[in-house]
Amino acid sequence: MSYNVWSREDIFVYKRTLAIGALVKKHDPDVIFFQEVTPYIRSIFEDLEWWNKYHCSPLSKFPLNNFASHKFADSPTGRGYLEADVTPGDPAATKPIHVATTQLERPAPPAPMRCAERHAQARHAVAALGGTANVVLGGDMSWGDDADGPFPLPAGWADAWAAMKKPLISLPSDDWTHDAVWNEEPAAFNGHVATSASMRKRADRFLCKLRDYRLSSMIGDQSVGLWYVRESLIAERWTNINLKPSCHRGVVLTIVPK
């Protein structure tokens, strides 16, 4: 599972974090890549029943071997990536998987968009991680195809969603995981009110290089059975806004041995 939990602590952070925790409990993932976890958000997660199932960090039910943390040389905000080896099941019968997570340089439209930095970081990460047989790199890539173009993947790598050529199950649209105005008031954009549809992109991705495993399924999930409503003053009148757990959807990938 990969989930940008949205670090905004001023917007119902306790209820939102519990909702995301409910999704973790529902899917029971073996490995979790979280982004934008503040110390307070982590403290809420730590009180939930599933937390103690995991080694940290990234969160993994399997022991983490060869853990390392790296910084991107060109990041103005100090971004980088984490990596470790996990072996699901019996080490004598299954091959290790190199797992890694990052949050690439995010744009700040209308400027700076950070496209050059984001491309350099993406190329650096896949080149550094590509030396092992089975790699899963996941996280909020801050990527938008309209601005950034195709993700720079070398031969042998695949974007899991694109490789399976099917929409994310349970999403109303088949190719987006982030909505810039989902939990915000409508914002001015080039002189017009930004609509949700115009601000969506598939920022959250799993990028894989697999020799001994194959892609099995992928879903995007926001359903938690609980929704929160806040009131906001828009155009001089109070309007209810349905509040989601995050401005991102969580994404879950399943891989199985060949």
Nutshell version of this structure?
One of its GO terms (biological process) is double-strand break repair. This protein is α+β, with helices and mostly antiparallel strands and 258 residues long. The protein has helices at residues 13-27, 39-46, 115-129, 145-148, 160-164, and strands at residues 2-4, 31-35, 59-60, 65-71, 80-86, 97-103, 135-140, 158-159, 178-179, 188-189, 192-193, 200-201, 204-209, 213-221, 228-234, 237-243, 250-257.
Uncertain residue ranges? 186-192
Q: What is the β-strand count?
A: 17
Shape: globular
According to CATH, what is the topology? Deoxyribonuclease I, Chain A
| Number of structural units classed as domains | 1
Task: Report on the architecture of this protein.
It is a single chain. The protein has helices at 13-27, 39-46, 115-129, 145-148, 160-164, and strands at 2-4, 31-35, 59-60, 65-71, 80-86, 97-103, 135-140, 158-159, 178-179, 188-189, 192-193, 200-201, 204-209, 213-221, 228-234, 237-243, 250-257. It is of the alpha+beta class and 258 residues long. The chain has one domain: 4-Layer Sandwich (Deoxyribonuclease I, Chain A), CATH 3.60.10. The strands form 6 sheets. Strands 4-5-6-7-13-8 form a 6-stranded mixed β-sheet. A 3-stranded mixed β-sheet has the order 1-2-3, with no helix packed on it. A two-stranded antiparallel sheet has the order 9-12. The two termini are 21 Å apart. Mean pLDDT is 86; it is low at 186-192.
Summary tags:
TDP2-like; single-stranded DNA binding; Deoxyribonuclease I, Chain A; globular; six-stranded mixed β-sheet; 33% strand; three-stranded mixed β-sheet; 18% helix; 258 residues; alpha+beta
